[in-house]
Design a protein that fits this description.
The structure is a single chain. With 426 residues, this protein is of the alpha+beta class. 43% of the residues lie in helices and 19% in strands. Strand 1 and strand 2 form a beta hairpin. The protein is globular and about 65 Å long. The relative contact order is 0.15.
């Protein structure tokens, strides 16, 4: 009988067993990756499109276009699409990110032949009805006006504007920008962007011959598209000067702090090491920032940092909300943690703690076939392959105090951070 009072033996993580998908290319230009698991009757299909931008870099148009994908076709109204999807117990969700737009479908295997015709209709015949567009614009304007009253939302907007400048990454939505959205431009963007040659399909579950046949017909044949989409011009993003930006709010009860700077993305060989040092600093509940500013000082309920990889850049970001009377003190403590990270060697116990945490997160993120898809998708969209994760695991397993300090000196300079405070400072 298992004795739960005795901890299991420690087992080092030597390698990662990642699932390699089957690749299928269709005559219409669609690329598909199939992840097989015969034991799962739930099928997940995710269509991922590269976001395309005109010269004016107006990402709000892409956001609204993604939102409108469920709002009606030449044959189905938005209500009919929702009713049919619900009838089959399926789930249809468009999502927008800085580089990609996706349309995700969850459905039981036995209903694939019923659900995919609806998806095909959306991809071929979306019409963006004016009354639905008016509703989407009105709702988003109201939501934006409410969000602009929240300090953390405003701090995040100001950070993106300051860190990236006037491009697709740094442009934030405004009420006036929503008013400039028109149906004609949405249709033009849809016809240019939502086509098979600009799409990668990821499929996971019990993908048998009948499912593959249905995918081939509805997504590989009846979806014709309009040829090769235009390519985005590579962004040339300049690192900005560090400094502090304060937006005073007399009625504020807390100050929102957001800081960070541009850094390397996943394609850079230092990226795993930068993630390691970020985790140590502020990337998990046992990080230095949490121990100091939450547990020791009691200035905040939560503080954390993150490294984000984008197609044309990467960025480091740190965020918290603190009491008005400790805003300046919090900034002092954050700066102190950056300096300690750069000036002092990290103890072996702390390195081992962070290493174990990151290795555990990696293993925990491979619990299902769907998480294997996410791992593959992350590297594929970065023009990399699954060997990256062996490299990542090797870097994490062999981090030393000297390497931590070297990465901190090169990538974690407090003086170079864009620092935004929305609220008050003493």
């Amino acid at each position: 009988m298992l004795n739960r009072a005795i901890a299991p033996d420690f087992q080092p993580i030597n390698s990662l067993n990642l699932i390699h998908p089957e690749q299928v290319e269709y005559d219409n230009g669609l690329h598909a990756f199939i992840f097989q698991d015969p034991n799962l009757q739930l099928i997940k299909l995710e269509l991922v499109f590269n976001n395309l931008f005109n010269q004016d870099e107006f990402p709000l148009r892409n956001t609204v276009m993604a939102t409108m994908l469920r709002e009606g076709t030449a044959t189905l109204t938005s209500a009919e699409i929702a009713e049919q999807i619900d009838f089959y117990g399926a789930y249809l969700m468009p999502e927008y990110s800085m580089d990609y737009t996706s349309l995700t479908i969850y459905t039981m295997q036995k209903y694939v032949d019923k659900v995919l015709p609806i998806v095909s209709d959306i991809l071929n015949n979306s019409i963006f009805p004016q009354h639905e567009l008016d509703t989407v614009v009105r709702n988003n304007k109201q939501s934006l006006q409410i969000s602009l009253q929240k300090n953390d939302f405003v701090a995040r907007r100001l950070f993106y504007q300051q860190a990236f400048g006037p491009n697709r990454y740094g442009t934030v939505p405004t009420v006036e920008a929503y008013d400039s959205i028109d149906r004609t431009s949405l249709l033009g963007l849809f016809q240019q962007q939502t086509q098979p040659a600009n799409c990668t399909l990821f499929v996971a579950g019990n993908v048998d011959a009948q499912v593959l046949k249905s995918i081939r017909y509805h997504l590989g044949e009846t979806w014709s598209g309009a040829g090769q989409p235009s390519k985005n011009v590579k962004l040339d993003i300049k690192q900005v000067e560090g400094g502090i930006l304060l937006e005073k709010r007399e009625e504020a009860l807390q100050s929102a702090i957001r800081m960070g700077n541009l850094t390397v993305n996943r394609t850079h060989p230092d990226f795993p090491a930068v993630q390691f040092v970020n985790t140590l600093l502020g990337g998990f509940f046992g990080s230095r920032l949490m121990r100091n500013i939450r547990e020791d000082k009691g200035y905040t309920y939560s503080i954390g940092s993150n490294i984000v990889s984008l197609q044309h850049s990467g960025f480091f970001t740190l965020a918290s909300e603190v009491g008005l009377d400790v805003t300046s003190a919090t900034l002092v403590e954050i700066e102190k943690e950056f300096e300690i990270l750069r000036q002092e060697k990290t103890t072996q116990d702390e390195i081992d703690l962070v290493r174990s945490y990151l290795q555990g997160v990696m293993l925990g993120s491979l619990e299902s076939i769907y998480s294997h898809v996410d791992k593959f998708k992350a590297v594929y969209l970065s023009n990399m392959d699954l060997s990256y994760y062996n490299y990542y695991a090797d870097v994490i397993a062999n981090m030393t105090a000297s390497q931590v300090q070297d990465i901190a000196i090169r990538y974690f300079d407090y003086d170079k951070l864009v620092r935004v405070v929305v609220g008050k400072m003493e």
